Amino acid sequence: MQTILTGILTGSHFNSLSKSEWRDLILVARANSLLPRVASILLSDADNDFHIPPTAHAHLVASIRHETLFHNQVINEVKLVNAKISRALNNKLIVLKGAGYVIADSKAAKGRIFSDIDLLVLKDDIPKVERALHLFGFVSDTDSEYDQKYYREWAHEIPPLRHFQRGTVLDVHHNIIPVVSGRAPNIEFFFESTIETEYGVEVLRPAAMFLHSAIHLFFSEEFTNGFRDLSDLSLLLDEIVGDVDEVDYLFELAENTGFENELFLAFRYLARVFNKHVPANVIQNFKYPQPKGIRLAIDDFIFGKVLAANHRLVDVKFRRIAEWLAFVRGHLLKMPFNILVKHTAAKLWRSIVKSVTGDVENNQHIQQKDVKEQ
To answer: Among 133, 189, 228, 253, which residue's Cβ finds the most Cβ atoms within 10 Å?
Structure first.
């Protein structure tokens, strides 16, 4: 089923499907947050010869309606937030990831559904932005003293903020990976890699958008949506592959920020897992010595499995082992070993306490938000 799904997403599958294949396609696409994207491809491509059964057609149409409503809500929310915090900014607000795709009307916005809106601001602007958002009805999604300390001292963002009425979640970043990792780049390179949109906010230019998506994926420790993220990268690559200046900028930005390896991994697994053709004239831009030997074999074992479509209908041997290795790898990338041990111990202790006493912190947090809503 992954072959059929990948073929539809890359425009290389032209055969009709059986009734059972339609059922499995919808199940696997939905499980990987890709049903709206599949629907947008199948329902908008007048050249395909697919006969879509009525039951499958109903699922596809419903997912398109959901996507349209969701994207409109995202645009309205970004405009509202920008209006409330723009005076607190020394730079224009930058919208990242899924919301950034939507605001930019990128190809990767096609069928893209997500759970929160990611914003990038200067670190010096964080206190003013946070105050403005509190006045606008956004409250911290956690009251845990440990989580607050973790985010504010070690991470690249403040704790998530949730609107007490609408439920919108904002992730306000001042960098793109945790500061404690030791690999957080000079964020000015990304602030200089933006374009303005019709909504008064900025998004990353296509090359920077592709690199940021690759960094986000290969710095992760959890890959539930890894196959979807590869689909994002495939569409983002389509936007730059024919533009020599944008390709040059992609490699320049990767070199300046130290993320050549993440760029290499993106191209490798787009080809190996997603069957995406990456032109030779793009690959030849690498100056970075590419991984090989045991290191590459380990990467292939991990990412060849965790980036596959995630569903019981897609049989991936040793996937659970690969997921555990990816989990360890991701955490080690994000924090030094001594901090990782401390962080893991703290999380384990809180988990034990919650299992015995209940989620006291979260219950208190919910009660406080309920009071504010009254």
So the answer is: 228
Question: Which region holds residue 89: left if phi is over 0, alpha if psi is between -120 and 50, else beta?
Answer: beta
Instruction: Tell me the CB-side half-sphere exposure of residue 95, using CA atoms within 13 A.
Output: 27
Q: How far apart are CA 190 and CA 192, in angstroms?
A: 5
Work out whether the CA dihedral 129, 135, 138, 143 comes out positive or negative. Answer: positive
* Weakest mean pLDDT among 13-22, 169-178, 201-210: 13-22
Burial, 128: exposed, middle or buried (Cβ in 10 Å; 0-12, 13-18, 19+)? middle
Pick from 353, 352, 350: which is nearest to 146 by CA? 350
Determine the Cα–Cα distance for residues 178 and 248; give it in Å rounded to an integer: 27
Contact 215, 259 (CB under 8 A): yes
What is the DSSP code string of 129-146?
Answer: HHHHHHHTTEEES---HH
Q: Give 204's contacts (C-beta < 8 A, 6+ positions apart).
A: 94, 96, 100, 190, 193, 194, 195, 212
Does the pTM exceed 0.85? yes
Between CA 10 and CA 191 the distance in angstroms is 31
Residues 89/122, Cβ–Cβ less than 8 Å: yes
Q: In sequence order, what are the residues at sequence separation of 6 or more whose Cβ sits closer than 8 angstroms to the Cβ of residue 235?
A: 106, 107, 108, 110
- The string of pLDDT tens digits covering residues 1-33 is 889 999 999 888 767 888 899 999 999 999 999
172 beta partners: 119
237: tokens are: 């690559």
How much is the CA Rg of the chain, to the nearest whole Å?
21
CA dihedral 113, 82, 207, 69 (to 10 degrees): 20
Helix (H) or strand (E) holding 161: strand 161-163
Give the total residue count for the chain: 374
How many Å apart are CA 235 and CA 284, to the nearest integer? 21
Q: Strand 161-163 and strand 202-204: pairing?
A: unpaired
